[in-house]
Amino acid sequence: MNRSSCIRSHVSRGRLVAMAVSLAVMSAAIACDGSDVTAPQSQPSRVTDAVNDFIPTYSGPRGADLDVVSNESSFDGSTFSFAGTMNGAIGTTAIGVYVWGVDRGVGTARFGDIATGVHFDAVVIARPDGTGSVRDFTTNVATPLPGGSVVISGKSLTVRVPAAMLPPQGFSLARYTVAFWPRSGLASNEQIADFSPDNGNAPLTVR
Q: Would the pTM count as exceeding 0.85?
């Protein structure tokens, strides 16, 4: 190798080392942001669900409006939207309740063997009469949703929640994950009719 080629070789190796150091620094910086690295593995943001797949432990009425067909949760920078489509017109089962569990960073599995992969630290609750609330398990406080937050149209419902009602607990707002389950009441786990995803959380769609 002549002197010129040798110099070029050393320069090339030097650049590669510099690039490697730069990438290592960037990786370390990202790792310091827990909101980006601690969010759990999750399903696609829009989740479809099999028809008539009531979970085995469910003991309530098997109305089609408690059977999930699809759901999607989104965030537009200021408001969360939680949407679900059922297999029948909502309100057919008068005692139906629709719940979205939200993991903001400290979510845990609260259903035992029924759904070990569903993690949440807050819930958004909607009822067929158009009322709803948010319960924060980190403070154990339930807050009614503003009027008009719950919109029901046939088999579908959408709940809009101001970001201030779901403050971060470790994840950034856009990194929250969500699970959806209809129920026939709020007294026991046997009233949970269906899960979507079946045993996990889905990420938000960021709009």
A: no
